[in-house]
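Blinded run. Sample ID left blank on purpose so nobody reads anything into the name before looking at the predicted structure. Input follows.
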Amino acid sequence: MKINPGELRLYAVTDRAWARDTDHLLDQIEAAVRGGATFVQLREKELDARSFLSEARWVVELCHKMGVRCVINDNVDVALLSGADGVHVGQEDMACEKARAMLGPGRIIGVSAHNVEEARAAEAAGADYLGSGAAFPTDTKDVRGHFVTPEGFRAITGAVSIPVVAIGGITKENLPQLAGCGLAGAAVVSALFAQPDVEAAARELLPLCEAL
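Blinded prediction complete.
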């Protein structure tokens, strides 16, 4: 296993919606890690490839300087060229097998899985961890038909040997509802980056993640 489950405890997923520019995004990521974020996924849906790569290089450098790993959402080419630790792919993105062939054996691949079947398939294809959800309603993306109940999380975590993080609509208020599901951690977006004090938000979230 290339990743310690503890590294996924408080998994920060970026969102440019709450950043004025790249410098502000870097400040937010730095604050999240200072507050306790243990892992960072850089997600960009709107930037062109050149801007995405430039930003990714800055983010990866910052994360490594602060001692946490960074993966890129969806884009294997950017992951390779930026020196990121790996990539996270969804069910509609590049297949895990192809991502592994491009990245080689040494980098991390995370895969989104909504049920036991997808979870087992991802593990068999070489995934190092799973992101599962949506745990709760969220404005970040359309999750219709993709809700995972606590029972569903328990089924997924019991079906695979790789770590699983919950994602989707997670806040400090509802995070305790996921305790006892066998999760390695929680992936959060707005619960960190939409907050006026990102570092303080991370400090509040980390002990809740540690209690899962």
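Unblinding after everyone has recorded impressions. The mean pLDDT is 95.
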